[in-house]
Amino acid sequence: TTEEIDAIVRKHYREVSAEIECPECGNCCKVFRPMLTAGDIDRLAGRLKMPREDFIAKYLNGYRNGEEHYYKLTPCPFLVDNACTVYSDRPDDCRSYPSLQRAGFMSRLDLAFSSCSVCPIVYNVYERVKQEIRDSQPAALTSPDE
User: Fold this and answer.
1) In this predicted model, what pLDDT tens digit does every residue of 4-20 receive, in sequence order?
2) Within 10 Å of residue 35's Cβ, how many Cβ atoms?
3) Do 100 and 121 contact (CB within 8 A), yes or no?
4) Is the pLDDT confidence value at 50 over 80?
5) What is the pTM of this model?
6) What is the DSSP letter of 108?
7) What are the residues whose beta carbons fall under 8 Å from the beta carbon of 40, sequence distance 6 or more?
8) Cis link prior to 75 (omega < 30° from 0)?
9) For residue 98, with 0-12 CB atoms within 10 Å meaning exposed, 13-18 middle and 19 or more buried, which class applies?
């Protein structure tokens, strides 16, 4: 069931993320452009001691529904020497990435799969989940090659 898959993913996410130092990687910051909510913008502008409008003009473009913006360029403008210089104030999208702890993993399978080449945590969780599901199948359902 969906709930069982979510539990398997969360279990492996806890194990793998305990082994890999996420902030030391920075791959997601080099590839993805997170959506920034109004709260993210206010938090970052405040941290940088900039007026909100100046922050938007300097770092952001585009918006969806007039409320969410994204960075103009990749890598993230706050990634310096592979480290996030605004880590404690990073956008909510960054905080939740790679979203393996959230319910509904199967509905985001395409995102997880595409993130395998970016995030070592996602890759390792994905491989462990595949193996656990494969190991739990009756022998008649698995091919002799596996």
Assistant:
1) 999 999 999 999 999 99
2) 17
3) yes
4) yes
5) 0.79
6) G
7) 91, 92, 93
8) yes
9) buried
